[in-house]
TrEMBL record:
Residues 846-911 form the HTH luxR-type domain. GO terms for biological process: regulation of DNA-templated transcription. One of its GO terms (molecular function) is DNA binding. PROSITE patterns: HTH_LUXR_1, HTH_LUXR_2. This is HTH luxR-type domain-containing protein. It holds the Pfam family AAA_16. GO terms for cellular component: cytoplasm. Signal peptide: none annotated. Keywords: ATP-binding, Nucleotide-binding. InterPro entries: AAA_16, P-loop_NTPase, Sig_transdc_resp-reg_C-effctor, TPR-like_helical_dom_sf, Tscrpt_reg_LuxR_C, WH-like_DNA-bd_sf.
Length: 915
């Protein structure tokens, strides 16, 4: 399909078929590679043939330019098989048969011209061998002018045929048509056939920008199916586009290929002097190649229009040449004072690009520092890995390895262990700086190597006594807080250092590292029961001032954990969602993983079991259990506890088979794991094992002075276990002990529920009512369902079957909403046991009676079946209480019942769930 080429086609056809007699005619089509010259030649040729002319055609190739008569051989084949056979021996002799070939071609061409006009067409004539051109022009010049015309297509601006045309006694009439790239409207026209007019109009600007209007490249995108992407963004290119772009480059000859490769290697640094240096070509040649590649739609100045074209050219560069080009580019960029990151991208772009020279190592380290500051952790790690290979200084190599280990810990925690272990010896020997040693100690703690970490922290403390450093002092105090809140068993190992730090100096809130110190201060306040409203405000301030960066990750996670332990779940959830939305679509895998696990913990504490399991499982997909270090206890514990409450006991047991680091049990994370394992043991009837886990939690938390239900309500777990074992006295004592502790509002409802289980039914009802009030304030859906179920059972024991049934149905609905599948199964309605006997003569309402209910009556009745009061039904359906009463009266009459408790369970429908 030819677009925006109608005028050129008409002009060339008219020129070649009409006009002044006695003058030879040469039509020339010029344009960039891929501009549609061949398609135009074919269109003109078809029209000329339709007018009665004969056509001889040939396509020249740069790979055959050195072979004499390559083009002439194609033209002779068009004159018939006998001619080609008769001249084959002559052509095989090389240049020796030049005169004979000229005569042979002249004779055959004259024979063809004697029967009618002939059009000789040569595509890519700029690549034609000189011998063929000379023979063609000589034979043409010896024939009557009106008998033979010439039509050629060339890729350059110069007249490649001019030297040969000088052989003619009279200059021919010449018409040159130059093909410009397609306009945006032209691209839209190409797209409209496959995409529709409206879609084509949306895509055309982006496609024109990506191809420069090259018909070849636009067609390649169409073959790749890029038009199926209904977006105005950069079109998605595939294999066909890459092949087409690469073909465009190679059709510009060796010089064009060199220039394109240099621009690809330089990326955004494709400045003319650099391209000239990399190619070794003169400035005019480089400029000409850049202009030609720009006209062909591959480049836009000194940059690639489409990333796929750049990738294709880079893959096309031989490996050895790629390394040489990048090394040369890096050296030149460094000499010109280019930014470190720009130079480093060349040094890291190929394994052979970075020389083992001091300047290269310095550039790579500086680029790594800048990349880490800008949260480009992957580039920083790549720079340090290359620098480590290049340096010849062993001390420098150790320093680089320490920085790299820290980065790898952030990028892929599971891979950091061996690197940190290899650095422990040098750090112990004092070969690392105190700051690096301290960072290594934190990484070792996370990997479970507490003793080594404590030794390194003590070593840093000794170095500080000789050389005071305010920034290092802040970092040590932050680590102190980390130990106290997360690795409390390690605190004694550095007690001497802590005693020295107990002076008046404290990190400045606005100073370096001050935010992390404050975040751990919040965590300490939550775990040591020192939280108050001012602490809540400080948490809000700190999170509001934090940004989603690698540097801010630890302080955000720590502050959010503090809010969770302090039972500020709404606040924690709001901030968690805010940071997740800020990092949406960005390369912050660590954020999404950690915040997803934390989201699961929040959902678990709100009794939303399905949400909790889903959030944590997604986090564990992104970072498997072995990659969490000792921190795995928290997400795995959350998932085990959620699955156990849902009744998925096999799945929980499978999770508990995951190998755990032994030192995890000496950390705060281990408490989460022990408590969750205890809940699983209790749910599956292993009461002694459950009690051991709950009491182990209590022993640790008490010894660490973190005995807060915000970490783990171990007393309630133990109390439930004693109940299961039949020891109500011990269960009641633990429940009362939990209720008497200050600041335990989140567990007040569950504690009252457990205490109620040790009382007779009439007293149990009062305590369970208090429990439900507390649970409504706390927003714990799962515990609410359990309390409702217990209250229903208490009413049943007292003979109040109507109230019992309503409460059990409420409990069933609440349990279903939160994902407590096992609890739902235990609460399935049992009419034979729960329902009061019907009066004589009444039976199950028939289908016709139920079908007679209006939608409004059915909605009200369904909610009544679930145990809602008339006032609750009115609020849910946005109607008055009087309207509810009227609807129920009509329902009773239609289905022939007298009491609310006689409403059939079959009215339990999706209406009740959606109301």
């Amino acid at each position: 399909m030819l677009l925006e080429r109608d005028a050129e086609t008409e002009e060339l056809t008219r020129f070649l078929t009409t006009g002044e007699r006695g003058r030879r005619r040469v039509g020339r089509v010029a344009g960039a590679v891929g501009s549609g010259k061949t398609a135009l030649l074919q269109s003109v040729t078809e029209r000329v043939v339709a007018g009665g002319a004969r056509v001889l055609s040939a396509v020249a190739s740069p790979y055959e330019q050195a072979y004499p008569y390559a083009v002439l051989e194609q033209l002779l084949q068009g004159l018939g098989p006998d001619t080609a056979a008769s001249r084959a021996p002559v052509l095989s002799e090389g240049g020796c048969g030049h005169d004979f070939v000229s005569c042979e071609f002249h004779d055959r061409l004259a024979e063809a011209a004697s029967t009618g006009p002939v059009l000789v067409v040569v595509d890519d004539a700029q690549f034609a061998d000189p011998e063929s051109l000379l023979c063609l022009v000589r034979a043409w010049g010896a024939l009557p002018a009106e008998r033979v015309s010439l039509l050629v297509a060339t890729g350059g601006r110069d007249g490649e045929l001019t030297p040969s045309l000088r052989e003619l006694p009279q200059p021919p009439l010449t018409l040159e048509v130059r093909l410009a790239p397609l306009s945006v409207a032209g691209v839209e026209g190409l797209l409209s056939d496959t995409s529709g007019a409206a879609h084509a109009a949306r895509l055309a600007p982006a496609w024109h920008a990506a191809t420069g209007g090259s018909p070849l490249l636009v067609h390649a995108l169409l073959e790749d199916g890029a038009a199926r992407t209904r977006s105005a963004a950069v079109p998605k290119a595939g294999e066909m586009f890459q092949q087409a772009a690469l073909a465009c480059v190679h059709r510009h000859g060796a010089e064009g290929v060199l220039v394109a490769r240099a621009v690809a290697v330089l990326g955004g640094a494709g400045r003319l002097p650099l391209v000239r240096t990399l190619t070794g070509l003169t400035e005019p040649v480089v400029e000409r190649c850049l202009a030609a590649l720009t006209e062909a739609g591959v480049l836009d100045g000194a940059a690639f229009r489409h990333e796929a074209a750049l990738s294709a050219v880079l893959r096309d560069v031989p490996a050895r040449q790629a390394g040489r080009l990048r090394a040369l580019a890096a050296r030149e960029l460094h000499r010109c004072g280019a930014p470190a990151a720009e130079t480093a991208r060349q040094l890291t772009g190929h394994e052979d690009a970075a020389p083992r020279e001091a300047w290269a190592v310095a550039v790579l380290r500086e680029a790594a520092r800048q990349a880490a500051h800008e949260d480009d952790t992957a580039l920083a790690a790549q720079c340090l890995q290359t620098a480590e290979r290049c340096t010849a200084d062993e001390q420098e190599r150790l320093t680089i390895k320490a920085d790299l280990a820290q980065l790898i810990w952030r990028l892929k925690p599971s891979a950091s262990g061996p690197r940190m272990q290899s650095l422990t010896g040098p750090a112990m020997a004092g070969l690392l700086s105190p700051a690096q040693t301290l960072r290594l100690a934190v990484g070792l703690l996370w990997n479970g190597r507490t003793d080594d970490a404590a030794a390194l922290i003590r070593q840093v403390g000794e170095a500080m006594s000789d050389r005071p450093d305010p920034l290092l002092d802040t970092q040590v105090r932050t680590v102190q807080m980390m130990l106290a809140t997360t690795y409390p068993d390690a605190v004694d190992a550095i007690r001497e250092l802590l005693d020295r730090l107990d002076g008046p100096a404290r990190p400045s809130p606005g100073g370096p590292g001050g935010e992390s110190y404050r975040a751990f201060g919040l965590l300490r306040a939550a775990l040591y029961e020192e939280w108050d409203e001012s602490t809540t405000e400080e948490a809000d301030w700190l999170l509001g001032a934090s940004r989603p960066t690698d540097q801010g990750f630890d302080q955000v996670r720590t502050a959010l954990l503090a809010l969770v332990y302090a039972d500020r779940l709404k606040q924690a959830s709001r901030w968690c969602d805010r940071f997740l939305s800020r990092t949406e679509g960005q390369d912050f895998a660590g954020w999404h993983t950690a915040l997803g696990a934390l989201r699961g913990q929040i959902s678990l504490r709100r009794g939303r079991l399905g949400e909790a399991a889903e959030s944590v499982e997604r986090a564990l997909e992104h970072l498997p259990a072995h990659g969490w270090g000792v921190a795995v206890g928290m997400p795995l514990g959350t998932l085990v506890q959620a699955r156990s409450a849902m009744g998925h006991h096999d799945r929980a047991a499978e999770l508990l088979e995951t190998p755990m680091p032994a030192t995890m049990f000496d950390t705060r994370y281990g408490v989460h794991y022990l408590y969750a394992r205890g809940r699983h043991q209790l749910a599956t009837g292993r009461h002694d094992a459950a009690l051991a886990d709950f009491l182990a939690c209590g022993e640790r938390m008490t010894a660490w002075r973190m005995d807060t239900a915000g970490l783990a309500p171990w007393r309630l777990g133990a109390a439930e276990t004693w109940l299961a074992l039949g020891d109500e006295t011990r269960a009641a004592a633990l429940a009362r002990e939990q209720l008497e502790r200050p600041g335990q509002r989140a567990v007040r409802g569950p504690a009252l529920r457990i205490l109620a289980a040790t009382r007779p039914p009439w007293e149990r009802i009062r305590l369970l009512g208090q429990a439900l009030t507390a649970l409504r304030k706390a927003g714990d859906t799962y515990e609410t369902a359990r309390a409702q179920a217990d209250l229903g059972r208490a009413h049943r024991e007292l003979g109040d079957l109507t109230q019992a049934r309503q409460l059990v149905r409420k409990a069933w609905r609440t349990a279903e909403a939160c994902g407590a599948e096992e609890l739902c199964r235990t609460l399935q309605p049992e009419p034979s046991r729960d329902a009061a006997p019907r009066e004589a003569g009444t039976g199950r309402p028939d289908a016709a009676a139920l079908a007679s209910l209006t939608d409004a009556e059915r909605r009200v009745a369904a909610l009544a079946v679930y145990g809602h009061t008339n006032r609750e039904i009115a609020a849910k359906l946005f109607i008055t209480v009087s309207t509810v009463e009227q609807h129920l009266t009509r329902v009773y009459r239609k289905i022939n019942i007298s009491h609310r408790q006689d409403l059939p369970v079959s009215l339990d429908s999706d209406v009740a769930h959606s109301a």
